[in-house]
Protein: Hedgehog/Intein (Hint) domain-containing protein
Amino acid sequence: MATKDGGSQINEPRRHVLGLVVAIGARLATLGAPAATILSASSAEAGGKAWWKIGERWKGHGHGHGEGPGNGNGPMCLLSGTSIMTPAGETCIESLRIGDLVETVGGEALPIKWIGRQIYRRCGPIWNEEVVPICIARFALDGRRPHKALYLSAGHALYLNGVLIQAKDLVNGTSITQALPDGRDTIEYFQIVLDTHDVVLAEGAPVETFLLEDGNYEDFTNFVEFARLYPDDIAATMTPFAPIVGYAGREHLKALLRLASGRLIRPSALQDAYERIAARGHELAG
Structure:
């Protein structure tokens, strides 16, 4: 049996969580209709889906943080036609080659180690809703970023508020939506691999490069090329550039607590980014 002091130390976190749950229930019971209004408003802001559940249908990260989107279709990332900042100016990602330099958010120009590719055709067997990209509208992030509509896979992350946030967790139904440009029937994705996990500028917006881990390069169509060029790296695992956050576990609980408190609780980096961008989306739409 634990000592009184030991038992108190061990059970304190649990009592704290239980207290939060009770507080949420009491708060919602007290709010009644207002609480329903808050929840409805949040859903409306997210295009009809509660904002802390946006993108739940994507079971995987879809860009190299693990399995592919939903059913293991593999990594995707940046849509063809996306402009990447280089020391010589912006260049379409499909025009980049191994050895070319790309600008990073740290101000350093780094050489491309490899570029992964993946193609999805509407008439093909692996096409499904989950491979359709997320569109970050022009100026959706702020008054200058991105300077052109940015299309990236659902699990590809942007570097905001000091953390990496997947595009699917920023969908708000106005400035950030799931969409294809020009009604195209073929989706061609490219991903940049550097020596380390880093952040580059795509249409002026900070987006991650490929996070190599557990042989996930094999999900790209041209994976054989990587294995041939870098046999010593086939089992390599990179350290993330920054914390990767998403609406699951603790973040989910934080979101619920913030809603239950009438947004009195200070938002996390992820919640702050979502709310700020969603509010800007409404302004742009108006």
The longest strand covers residues 114-121. The chain has one domain: 72-284. The longest helix spans residues 4-31. DSSP finds five helices and 15 strands in the chain.
